[in-house]
């Protein structure tokens, strides 16, 4: 894509100093080139960034740069000499933002897949010399959303723009419940017909992750496969955390699943979650509870029989995961597949300094403190550093899309 340079704003100077942001609007997984031009060679400037998140919390970062011999600062090519981060990072002024409020523990996305606006300003010798903005869209123009209320099924179908058919992906969330709209919107923006399927803590569905029949997901897969917007006879399944556990389980059970993407998954089926549940088990099949593990590394009947999957498997895990040992459990999946001489490709993208947010498919402030689970109320630290989580996302996003585009 050809970049069209544009001075977004010039403040109070006549020497041609300007801040250039190209493009000015991006999807949430895309980078922009941020440049300051018209400076003197070796001149020091400070770039500041700020945004207001979906919880009305103000976030900000700043970094000091030295202009090159042409009087240019290009954030994607130069490391800052001071400020919120140290490494070369095109989007470092977003990744390394911190909240202005002490009560904020994590960035909250705009509601209803709304647009996020990031404001930038350039300071030189205490004076603002330029300003501009970048807008991030969570969903591409033309993507259609279809509310799903078909029998017991609940969710939202995201369909790419145009009339063509696209590969179908079933997207399932984790222990937070609700509808995993952001991942499904991301996939639809990148050419997949994605069903964000709710299965608890949403509308008239069960309030807790307990006693969930896997027949529900079988119906969801069948419903998606019959949609006229879906190409091919098989589907992919993508899930995160408990949804990653579930994605691996569904892949092992249903021949219609031709590929599995599991973010920070478990290698076993775990117990019900999260709070005062009426049943000790999370999943049932044929009206009977499936064996489950308590919080430990299970190797018995509760282990997911991933070798029965009829397609490739991709896992994304964080070696600093504070919720559970996703990297170790993903490696146990890898070992099981190797022992079974699994005929399809399988990989674990593991990231040393990433936590439970490893590989998240969006560019956003990565700092977090201890967070409170929305259902159980339990406080925990999901692990990972801002740098580690940011690097995992930038590495994983194109690999996940490439994996899904290979077909199944």
Number of domains: 2
CATH class of the largest domain: Alpha Beta
Taking all residues together, what is the mean pLDDT? 94
- What share of the residues lie within helices? 10-25%
How would the global form be characterised? elongated
Strand residue percentage: 25-35%
State the CATH architecture of the largest domain.
3-Layer(aba) Sandwich
Low-confidence stretches: 1-14
Distance between the termini: 29 Å
Any idea what the CATH superfamily of the largest domain is called? Alpha/Beta hydrolase fold, catalytic domain
Per DSSP, the total helix count is 6
Characterise this structure.
The chain has helices at residues 92-95, 181-189, 215-225, 242-253, 326-339, 386-405, and strands at residues 7-9, 18-22, 25-27, 33-37, 44-52, 58-66, 73-74, 82-83, 98-99, 116-124, 127-137, 144-150, 153-159, 166-172, 193-198, 212-213, 230-240, 257-263, 283-285, 288-289, 313-318, 346-351, 371-372, 379-380. The protein is of the alpha/beta class and 408 residues long. The protein has two domains: 7-137, Acyl-CoA thioester hydrolase/BAAT N-terminal domain (Immunoglobulin-like, Sandwich), CATH 2.60.40.2240; 144-405, Alpha/Beta hydrolase fold, catalytic domain (Rossmann fold), CATH 3.40.50.1820. Strands 12-13-15-14-17-18-21-22 form an eight-stranded mixed beta sheet, sandwiched between helices. Strands 3, 5, 6, 8, 9, 10 and 11 form a seven-stranded mixed beta sheet that branches. A four-stranded antiparallel beta sheet has the order 1-2-4-7, with no helix packed on it. The longest helix is centred in the C-terminal third of the chain and has 20 residues, at 386-405. The two termini are 29 Å apart. Residues 1-14 have low confidence and may be disordered.
């Amino acid at each position: 894509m050809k970049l069209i340079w544009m001075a977004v704003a010039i403040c109070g100077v006549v020497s041609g100093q300007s801040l250039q942001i190209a493009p000015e609007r991006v999807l949430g997984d895309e980078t922009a080139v941020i440049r300051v031009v018209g400076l003197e060679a070796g001149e020091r400037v400070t770039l500041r960034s700020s945004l207001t998140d979906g919880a009305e919390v103000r976030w900000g970062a700043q970094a000091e740069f030295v202009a090159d011999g042409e009087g240019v600062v290009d954030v994607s090519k130069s490391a800052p000499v001071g400020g919120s981060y140290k490494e070369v990072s095109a989007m470092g002024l977003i990744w390394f933002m911190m909240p202005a409020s002490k009560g904020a523990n994590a960035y909250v996305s705009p509601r209803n897949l709304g647009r996020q606006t990031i404001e930038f300003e350039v300071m030189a010798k205490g004076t603002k010399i330029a300003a501009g903005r970048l807008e991030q869209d969570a969903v591409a123009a033309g993507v259609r959303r279809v509310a799903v209320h078909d029998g017991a099924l609940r969710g939202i179908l995201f369909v790419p723009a145009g009339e063509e058919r696209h590969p179908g992906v079933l997207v399932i969330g984790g222990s937070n419940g609700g509808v995993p709209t952001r991942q499904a919107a991301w996939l639809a923006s990148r050419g997949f017909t994605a069903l964000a399927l709710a299965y608890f803590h949403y509308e008239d569905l069960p309030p807790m992750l307990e006693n969930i029949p896997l027949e529900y997901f079988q119906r969801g897969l069948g419903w998606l496969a019959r949609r006229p917007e879906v190409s091919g006879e098989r589907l992919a399944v993508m899930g995160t955390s408990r949804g990653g556990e579930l994605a691996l389980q569904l892949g092992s059970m249903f021949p219609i699943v031709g590929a599995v993407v599991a973010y920070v998954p478990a290698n076993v089926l775990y117990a019900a979650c999260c709070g005062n549940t009426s049943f000790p088990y999370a999943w049932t099949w044929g009206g009977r509870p499936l064996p489950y593990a308590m919080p430990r590394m299970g190797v018995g009947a509760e282990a997911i029989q991933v070798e029965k999957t009829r397609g490739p498997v991709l896992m994304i895990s964080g070696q600093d995961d504070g919720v559970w040992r996703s990297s170790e459990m993903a490696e146990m999946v890898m070992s099981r597949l190797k022992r079974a001489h699994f005929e399809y490709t399988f990989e674990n993208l593991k990231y040393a300094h990433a936590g439970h947010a490893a590989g998240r498919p969006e560019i956003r402030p990565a700092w977090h403190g201890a967070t409170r689970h929305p259902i159980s109320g339990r406080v925990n630290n999901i692990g990972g550093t801002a740098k580690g989580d940011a690097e995992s996302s930038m590495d994983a996003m194109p690999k996940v899309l490439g994996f899904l585009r290979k077909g199944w």
